[in-house]
Amino acid sequence: MRLAVFDVDGTLVDSRASIHRAAVEGAKAINIDPPTYDEVRSIVGLSLFEALQAMRPELDPETVAAYTREFQNAFLTFHADPDFTEALYAGAHETLVRLKNDNWLIGMATGNSRRGVTRIVDRHGWKDIFDVTFCADDGPSKPHPHMLQCNLSALGVGTHQAVMIGDATHDIRMARTAQVHAIGVSWGFHTVEELQDAGAHEIVHDFKALERSLEAFVPVLA
């Protein structure tokens, strides 16, 4: 039994432009300085309120709550546009299908809301791919290990049988805290150096390399 748990934004879905745009539109709506892309990328992966609070620590909780609502409103507006697209990274869908065909269990740990998870799963036809999905609405934000532990518990999998795959340091720290093998991907929001510093066991640069890494993964009790 082997379980691959995936982050979504920056790992499977290339949402870099839309997340930055939503953060900018939300900031304008409440009359605060719009963030740079570098500011935004550092907090992607956290639950939204915690992410915006971390990015703008000078704001009081009420203002952060307003920023969160405006960010969400902007994102919903984007998705209501029939011409709006958020592409999958090349090879993402094919890798998920191959893992499923190779009898891997597949889970999700994302800072998205449950509404966002449902939208993503429906849009990409992943209902039969993911065995379980856990998100920001289910408990503490990354890097707390809660979401990853929920994946393990729901599927009856030991920590030595699981791999966490993500593009952000929050994913890596969550995995290390949960004592799960941590694979960083280099194509998302955080840099290779940041992933290394967070403690990634390995870093891959495309989905073919990820597949090779997972093929070589052998669950071994410590």
Q: Mind explaining what this structure looks like?
A:
- The chain is of the alpha/beta class and 222 residues long.
- The protein folds into 2 domains: 3-14 and 89-216, 3-Layer(aba) Sandwich (Rossmann fold), CATH 3.40.50.1000; 16-80.
- Helix content is 47%, strand content 11%.
- It has 10 helices and 6 strands, in the order E-H-H-H-H-H-E-H-E-H-E-H-E-H-E-H.
- The chain has helices spanning 16-29, 37-41, 48-55, 61-80, 92-101, 114-124, 146-155, 169-178, 192-198, 207-216; strands spanning 3-6, 105-109, 132-134, 162-166, 181-185, 202-204.
- A 6-stranded parallel β-sheet has the order 3-2-1-4-5-6, with helices on both faces.
- Helix 1 packs across helix 4, helix 3 crosses helix 4 and helix 8 (169-178) packs parallel to helix 9 (192-198).
- It is globular, with a radius of gyration of 17 Å.
- The relative contact order is 0.17.
Secondary structure elements and pairings:
Elements: E1 3-6, H1 16-29, H2 37-41, H3 48-55, H4 61-80, H5 92-101, E2 105-109, H6 114-124, E3 132-134, H7 146-155, E4 162-166, H8 169-178, E5 181-185, H9 192-198, E6 202-204, H10 207-216
Parallel strand pairs: 1-2, 1-4, 2-3, 4-5, 5-6
Helix pairs in contact: 1-4, 3-4, 8-9
- The Cα radius of gyration reads 17 Å
What is CATH's topology name of the largest domain? Rossmann fold
Note the main sheet: 6 strands, parallel
Give the oligomeric state of the chains in this entry, treating copies of one chain as homo and distinct chains as hetero.
Answer: single chain
Count of distinct strands: 6
N/C terminus separation: 16 Å
Structural class: alpha/beta
The share of residues in helices is 40-55%
The CATH superfamily label of the largest domain reads HAD superfamily/HAD-like
